[in-house]
Amino acid sequence: MKICCIGAGYVGGPTMAMIAKQCPEVEVTVVDINAERIAAWQTDELPIYEPGLLEVVREARGRNLFFSTEVDDAIRAADVVFVSVNTPTKTFGEGAGRASDLQYWELCARRIKEVSTSDKIIVEKSTLPVRTADAMERVLHAGDNPVHFEVLSNPEFLAEGTAIADLENPDRVLIGGHETEAGQRALQTLVDVYAHWIPRERILTSNVWSSELSKLTANAFLAQRVSSINAISQLCEATEADVAEVANAIGTDSRIGPKFLKASVGFGGSCFKKDILNLVYLCETYGLDEAAAYWQQVVEMNEFQQTRFVKTILHSMFNTIAGKRIAVLGFAFKADTGDTRESPAIKVCRELALERAEVVVSDPKALGNAKQDLEGVESVVFEADPYAAVAGAHAVAVLTDWEAYKTLDFERIYAAMEKPAFLFDGRNMLDHAALHAMGFEVYSIGKGRLSHLD
Ligand code: UDX
Ligand code: ADP
Prior knowledge:
Elements: E1 2-6, H1 12-22, E2 27-31, H2 35-41, H3 53-60, E3 65-68, H4 71-77, E4 80-83, H5 103-115, E5 120-124, H6 132-140, E6 149-153, H7 163-168, E7 173-176, H8 181-194, E8 203-206, H9 208-239, H10 243-251, H11 272-285, H12 289-316, E9 325-329, H13 344-354, E10 358-362, H14 367-373, E11 380-382, H15 386-390, E12 395-398, H16 410-416, E13 422-425, H17 432-438, E14 441-444
Parallel strand pairs: 1-2, 1-4, 2-3, 4-5, 5-6, 7-8, 9-10, 9-12, 10-11, 12-13, 13-14
Helix pairs in contact: 1-3, 9-11, 9-12, 11-12, 12-13
Uridine-5'-diphosphate-xylopyranose (UDX) is lined by residues 156-160, 219, 222, 226, 260-262, 264, 267-269, 271-272, 333-334.
């Protein structure tokens, strides 16, 4: 069997590397129009940072895993074509700011139709609005094309930073296919690929529309949990309740469960906001305005949580941060990734700069992306070494939950800072009592402040 994957990004690259590793008899070619990205996949400096990815790529690369810019050749040769291109939020025209921009995806469908000379299974890997497969089939079968395409939906649930573990041992794999004989045959072909390493009972099958909608729904539910606990964090700060204690108390209820209840400066990442806005737009399209407003609020709460964090910094530092040096530790949207898409750090740094603070950004993996995200923002500098970043700072703001930040020498940091030395823990990950004992003014999310100034 030959597999081609169009799109060598965060989803396509790692997913195909895992399939190639687990299915040595399957030839997997990942193609992309971005030649620089493809070149990087052929080296040990992979275009994305993901723990354990290089080992998986190295095992299969050159054996049955190939990266190429020859998109047409790879499509033509393939039995199964995964489409894993970006589907960002539309920035223009109808649905701007909410609907999915399907132009890259449709170009792929047209390309597939144009170059194919044999029947193929087309797998939607990109996150798409429900009923996209319908449109894809119409594009693929337009005119008098003798080739038959069977479209499956196979959304990817991997999270960045844990992609390899998620791919190796997923909670489930979901495959949606049509309830026709050809549809079920195609579905079985893909089930057999995943069954190389995933127990059959964890490979769920459904109709295409359920599969498409499940991806948006899963992300909306996860993001909703973060927004829910962040809403409660605001009430905690007003009432001396502790959000971590509340999360622990409710998380032990097996009906609620403990995951995704960490209050934070807000969720980021390429998926949550985009997918919820897409869901909102879909609801509106079907005239379901109340359902749309319900999900919209999850995004609004998230934006508010980020702005609120900046306001806490401003108000606690005597209502002025103009000219003050603020060291931002962590710019990635979460730990173990260099990805900064929709990272709360972008909004926080921009708003700090608007208040004319001198912002120093530090991050172990994301400084390259941070520089692009903050291009044109005055009074922002970048410093890889966290100790250099905090030297002379009036405040430290922790925005990413990098494990390494827990073991920083905070005595040394305190000594290097202006006094009073403020610390804002946007991830509730540090030992606040110990920091307070060292002399810091400590502010966290959903907990009372620990101050020496009262
Ligand atoms: C998410 C989904 O988890 C994944 O299944 C889907 O395929 C893609 O979108 P990802 O965006 O990589 O994955 O990261 P995730 O771990 O879900 O975190 C998203 C954001 O929520 C991060 O900014 C994270 O810091 C934040 N978060 C998560 C919290 O603030 N609190 C939590 O309790 C959990
Ligand atoms: P994701 O996070 O969903 O994987 P990325 O943006 O990381 O998204 O990756 C999507 C990839 O798809 C990009 O590398 C982009 O160059 C590629 N791509 C977009 N359109 C096409 C196309 N028509 N043909 C081939 N590759 C494409």
